[in-house]
Design a protein that fits this description.
The chain has about 300 residues and is α/β, with parallel strands linked by helices. It folds into two domains: about 240 residues, Aldolase class I (TIM Barrel, Alpha-Beta Barrel); about 45 residues, Alpha-Beta Plaits (2-Layer Sandwich), CATH 3.30.70.20. The chain contains twelve helices and eleven strands. A nine-stranded mixed sheet has the order 5-1-2-6-7-8-9-10-11. A two-stranded antiparallel ribbon has the order 3-4. Bound molecules: iron/sulfur cluster (2 copies). One iron/sulfur cluster binds next to helix 1. The site of one iron/sulfur cluster has 12 residues, from helix 2.
Length: about 300
């Protein structure tokens, strides 16, 4: 399927980011810089990056780092009451120990490009590049497209990690500058999808099918397996995934509970704890997937964890 090149907005747009991880090896091919964009339009109850949900910068507190200097109290107009906190950032600005910090900041596309290209040699030697993740990076598709164009012009490979719940017109903006897309397919049943992620999967499945026909990009479909939620979905999901022309591989991810501690630091009341799937459950999932798809990855099994 041919893709039209569409970039709107001005040159050197601003994007909202909550983290940049260098030397990532689990976000596509080779050694990569992973850029985590802030803001998401899904609400997966198991989210392991809850700091990516809200697009606005927010206060994050690490009580264990506090040295009791009292500076935060002198600047907060809300008495440090978590219920009244508006994430103004004044306390973080004066905190000397990093116990209070702001999560999320703006960067322009050229500023971000400068960070990304500092590891050019590593990308070249490993077949790596940059991966935009989140949050949902495609909620900032114009910014991603502009930054990706700079990267591609410099010979840097670009990958996108998305939950796929955006209009196709947003996806089209980034495709001309993208080497691969990693898209989640979390649950087959739409009612269950709504219950656990807050949104329907109809647009997601349509987008996955369209992505499967785009010329010149590799497609990776990923399912995070959560015990008691989607461990029986392998057959239905993989029947659809097996028909995707561009599929490079299908990846099974193991749910873990890391996101829960972040919720406390961010003072967020969201999500809940699920059971992690056993290795046996992952093996079964992979075995079923393998009936339909040639290349199936599941790192916990390959690493023998
Ligand atoms: S970020 Fe919240 S706690 Fe910190 S000064 Fe502002 S209102 Fe007070
Ligand atoms: S400014 Fe930071 S280190 Fe000082 S009391 Fe507040 S949180 Fe603790």
């Amino acid at each position: 399927m041919p893709v039209n090149i569409v970039i709107s907005g001005s040159i050197d747009m601003k994007g909202v980011i909550f983290d940049i991880q260098r030397f990532s090896t689990h976000d596509g091919y080779g050694i990569r810089t992973t850029v985590f964009m802030k803001g998401c339009n899904n609400a997966c109850l198991w989210c392991h990056n809850p700091e990516g949900l809200d697009k606005k910068p927010q206060l994050r507190i690490y009580p264990v780092k506090c040295i009791g200097c009292g500076r935060c109290e002198t600047v907060c107009g809300n008495g440090l009451d978590p219920g009244k906190c508006n994430s103004c950032g004044k306390c973080a600005a004066v905190c000397p120990s990093g116990a209070r910090e702001m999560c999320g900041y703006e960067l322009s596309s050229t500023e971000l490009f400068d960070v990304i290209r500092s590891d050019l040699d590593f990308y070249k030697n490993s077949g790596g590049g940059v991966t935009f993740s989140g949050g949902e990076p495609l909620l900032q598709a114009d910014f991603i497209a502009e930054t990706s164009k700079l990267c591609r012009d410099a010979g840097i490979s670009v990958g996108i990690q998305t939950a796929g719940n955006v209009e196709w017109t947003e996806i089209e903006k980034i495709l001309p500058y993208t080497d691969f897309v990693m898209c989640d397919f979390k649950l087959y049943d739409d009612e269950k999808h709504k219950k656990y992620t807050g949104v329907s999967n109809k647009m997601i499945v349509e987008n996955i099918k369209k992505l499967g026909n785009v010329d010149g990009i590799k497609l990776i479909i990923r399912t995070p397996v959560i015990a008691g939620v989607n461990e029986d979905d392998a057959e239905n999901i993989c029947k659809i995934v097996s028909g995707l022309k561009n599929l490079d591989y299908y990846e099974i991810l193991r749910y873990h509970k890391f996101g829960l501690s972040k919720l406390e630091n961010l003072n967020m009341k969201f999500g809940r704890e699920f059971d992690e799937p056993s290795l046996e459950c992952l093996r079964e999932f992979k075995k079923t997937a393998g009936k339909y798809i040639k290349k199936v990855k599941c790192d916990p099994l390959e690493e023998g964890e």
